[in-house]
Amino acid sequence: MNVPQTSLLPDLLPGLKGQRVAISAGAGGIGLAISKLLYAHGCRVALFDVSDSALDTARHDMPDALVAKADVSSEAEVEAFFTSAGHNFGGLDALINNAGIAGPTGGVEDISPSDWRRCVEIGLTGQFLCTHYAVPAIKAAGGGAIVNMSSAAGRHGYAYRTPYSAAKFGVIGFTQSLAKELGPHNIRVNAILPGIVAGARMEGVIKDRAAQVGIEYAEMETRYLERVSMRRMVTPEDVAETVAFLLSNGGRNISGQSIGVDGNVETL
Ligand code: NAD
């Protein structure tokens, strides 16, 4: 279904219409939900992703968006994307550092150093690369907002997923430091910490963990939900709405924060 180009909700989140927003991994999962919601609010969306099929969907759903193939762990591809976005949009008002992979599941003695590096490279260094190449355009626009995707794993830790958890703790440190550095440039920086998000990725995580512990998928899913006060998973759209709020005028004095969108998850 095509999303209308003009915002359907102009009064609920003032200040979004016309914002030029770049989104990493913006064609699938949570990133796609963010891209589509911002697009529906009248933002000018530039996104990149590595998946060809996801990129095709994004092009179909958002015909006026700038959609490109790039890997967040490739400095050359990230630089080329931001050069193109800055050129096409004449500047940038916001950056959503969404890309991140679950990484390996396993005890610390079983995780290979190359799997560790890949997880941290995509989930943490990738945020640095995008920010490095986006900030000059945001400064030139007179300020804006950056939203970094962390995780409840970046607050509580996550057994058998140490690379992921370490990357997500790193995202919070990156966010708090950037908020101090960029505040005087009128750039707000916040982290969102989704909890257990419904979708294929979480199904894979629960499946892996169930196999590791030797129980059925349904039983492991129940165990996961028992850790959530609200006893339900959040959706990609829940996360997207929080991003939209942070970019809107409503978020104008929110910076340096780590915002859980998790139904009050106790641990992962
Ligand atoms: P996902 O696994 O569904 O992937 C989303 C998109 O990322 C896909 O389209 C994929 O092609 C793209 N991608 C993967 N590697 C990439 C790379 N190297 N460069 C560019 N694009 C790449 O992810 P998701 O569940 O939507 O998660 C999005 C963000 O939210 C991640 O940072 C993730 O860690 C975080 N998060 C997710 C959950 C969850 O339960 N899904 C929970 C907490 C935090």
TrEMBL record:
Superkingdom per UniProt: Bacteria
Listed InterPro entries: NAD(P)-bd_dom_sf, Sc_DH/Rdtase_CS, SDR_fam
Entry GO MF terms: oxidoreductase activity, acting on the CH-OH group of donors, NAD or NADP as acceptor
CDD domains registered for this protein in UniProt: SDR_c
Family under the similarity heading: Belongs to the short-chain dehydrogenases/reductases (SDR) family.
UniProt-recorded name of the protein: SDR family oxidoreductase
